[in-house]
Each structure stands twice: as C-alpha cells, then as structure tokens.
Amino acid sequence: MLGNILRYSLRNIDQLVPLQEEIEHVQNYLFIQQTRYRNKLHFEMDISENVKPINIPILFMVLNQLESQLIFS
Fold it and tell me: Tens digit of pLDDT for each residue in 4-21?
C-alpha cells in the first residue's frame, strides 16, 4: 500500500490519469490513515461510474494536502 502511494507520487505531474486511478490513490492513503488512527477515521465516496474513466491531471499534491487537513482538523 505505502509502496503504491510512493510510486504514484513519483509520476510525472503533467501526466493525465483516469479519475479512477486518482480515487484509488486517495483510498490507499486513507486506508493507511485509518490504520494509523485505529479506525477512528471513517470515509465514504459516492462517485458516478460515468466519470471514473475521465482523464485528469494528477492531483496527488493537492489531494494529500487536503487529506492531511481533513484528518488533523
């Protein structure tokens, strides 16, 4: 899991990826945080299947900052 996050974060930031891939990255990160905080963190994602194949810029830097703020708030 941690290796997947590291490999993902080392990708070229100008690269486009399917939204599904970005969602998986966020889920991996949140799984680690759930383990770290002993299941005190709960999350839900409700994302339409129609948008998952859409290519987007890699947002890992933005999302990691957002995730960190949400967890530590």
Answer: 776 776 766 678 888 898
Write down the domain spans for the chain: 2-72
Note the helical H segments in 1-73.
2-9, 19-36, 60-72
- Residue 51 per-residue DSSP state: T
Q: What pLDDT does 34 receive?
A: 86
Residue 39 gets the label, from left (phi > 0), alpha (psi -120 to 50) or beta, of left
| Separation of alpha carbons 1 and 30, rounded Å | 10
pTM reported for the whole predicted model? 0.68
